[in-house]
Design a protein that fits this description.
This protein has 141 residues and is of the alpha+beta class. The protein has one domain: PH-domain like. Helix content is 29%, strand content 33%. It is built from four helices and eight strands; from the N terminus they run βααβαββββββα. Strands 1-5-4-3-2-8-7-6 form an eight-stranded antiparallel beta sheet. The longest helix has 17 residues.
Length: 141
C-alpha cells in the first residue's frame, strides 16, 4: 500500500497499525539495537514510485522503519512524505549486485545502494525479524 503520510489521519494510522503492527516499545527497540535504517539511496524503483520521485530535483533517498509484522519504507517528494507499507509475508528481498538490495512487494519495488556496512547489518536484522515471524509448522497456522 503506497500512501501519503504527510498529514495526521487517524483512519490511515489504524490501517497501517493493522497491517504491520504498532511501533516497537522502548524495550524492544533496545533489544533490536534500533529499528530505523540509515539513509538509503534509491537507485531504481517501480513506475508508481518513480512518478512521485521525479517531481523534484532532490536526491532520491528513503529510510526503513521496522515494525512487528512488517516494514514501512518512507521517502519524500516535493514537500510530501510517502510510505510503502509492506507486511513481512509480502516482502521479498534480493541482492542482485554486491552493493545493492531490491525490496519487492507485489508490483512495487525499490532498489537501494548498500555501500556502507551499516546498511548490510540493517538488512540482515530486518531479515532475521522477518524469519522470526514466519510459521514453523502447519499446526501453527
Amino acid at each position: 500500500m503506497l500512501v501519503n503520510v504527510s498529514y495526521k489521519d487517524r483512519k490511515l494510522t489504524e490501517r497501517i497499525n493493522e497491517t504491520v503492527g504498532k511501533p516497537f516499545n522502548l524495550r524492544e527497540r533496545w533489544k533490536h539495537k534500533g529499528i530505523g535504517s540509515p539513509k538509503l539511496q534509491i537507485t531504481s524503483c517501480s513506475m508508481d514510485i518513480h512518478n512521485l520521485l521525479v517531481l523534484d530535483q532532490n536526491l532520491n533517498t528513503c529510510n526503513i522503519e521496522l515494525r512487528p509484522r512488517g516494514i514501512i519504507l518512507r521517502f519524500r517528494s516535493i514537500l510530501e512524505t510517502f510510505a510503502l507499507i509492506i507486511p513481512y509475508y509480502k516482502l521479498s528481498v534480493y541482492k542482485g549486485k554486491s552493493e545493492e538490495y531490491s525490496l519487492y512487494k507485489d508490483h512495487h519495488f525499490i532498489k537501494v545502494a548498500a555501500k556502507k556496512p551499516e546498511v548490510h547489518n540493517f538488512i540482515s536484522k530486518m531479515l532475521r525479524i522477518k524469519d522470526e515471524q514466519r510459521f514453523d509448522h502447519v499446526d501453527d497456522l
